[in-house]
Predict the structure of Cytosine deaminase.
Amino acid sequence: MSLDLLVRNATLPDGRTGQDIAIADGRIAAIEPGIAAEAGRVIDAGGHLVAPPFVDCHFHMDATLSLGLPRMNVSGTLLEGIALWGELKPLLTFEAVVERALRYCDLAVAHGLLAVRTHVDICDDRLLAVEALLHVKKTVAPYLDLQLVAFPQDGYFRSPTAAANLDRALDLGVDVVGGIPHFERTMADGAASLKALCEIAERRGLLVDIHCDETDDPLSRHIEALAYETQRLGLNGRVAGSHLTSMHSMDNYYVSKLLPLIAEAGVAAIPNPLINITLQGRHDTYPKRRGMTRVPEMRAFGIEIGFGQDCTMDPWYSLGGADMLDVAHMGLHVAQMTAREAMRWCFDAVTVHPARIMHLDGYGLAPGCHGDLVVLQAKDPIEAIRLRANRLFVVRRGRVIAETPARIASLALPGRPAAVDPAAYAPKAG
């Protein structure tokens, strides 16, 4: 058997060690110890963790890397960010959106992030950002899966042309139906928008991803309506509620009713830890709410959960950098998920869980899956999060598309080692 790539001596996320991974014709042909075959390239993983690529199921690529245009978000709030984006939209050009998005994709690939679901604002009648990101999607397809969500940022009903623009965007090839019910003028309009949007998705056979209850208001309960519409239309497993920050502030008794409804409907949840803890609680004095939704409680009900990056250097967030381990690291801390099993799950929240939410075909680390993987300078998933580990190799369809040298510090200390490898500090087994 002649291979495209052979990765030797890998540690897998499930704990298996000493594994070889054979990739032929762009797909994983075998995972087992001691594979004997010739390959176009051989990588020695050196016992480091080899994982499927990182996946970001919530991002805004039309706004990324626009920090400072046309001004800064002085208050740092969600609402000023939305207002600032409204000022920037008329100034956007096709070329600028494409260039910023491609630069972000370069950064993503360097960090082993090979699939992104991005919301794209359809409230600009030009649909300039839609056309720009459709162009980017085609351009990056050989090395990154880009899924687009038709997002009515200014409200499906509140913006007078949003309904028509959303249909136009879907006709152009946008993949997913989006919405923002809590930004409508009334709670009733918010619920009506969910009914309309889910019916569009059912009619067209599309997925749904709603910016849902991104507020500190505990009475913003559109997730209940989203779960209802999902059940009514048979969209189970095809719908995600993003943010869900109002649940952080909801009455516990109501949540005890709500979580089973979400689970029954098969609605996924997409918290965005970096952004949720930054934008929520802005009206509080002390104690300040951190805003992220109830991840451990959702897990207990078997709800599918994927962490998202949301923003990078844009009107809402001036930091970020396409690093999903940074997202997992923050999510772990904010949700106080410090048990070993829970920390291990946070790695899945930026890999396999968002891949399922996005319905990615051929994703995973098993024979028959696409030959896509990341070699990390860490011994296991928890260590990868702790270290925000270097991506030593990033592989797409059996071809290495990014490499980063191992991070090794040289020391000049009497009686101490000459070098320090952060990955060598992993705790002993057991």
About this structure: The domain at 2-52+364-425 is CATH 2.30.40.10 (Urease, subunit C; domain 1). The radius of gyration is 22 Å.
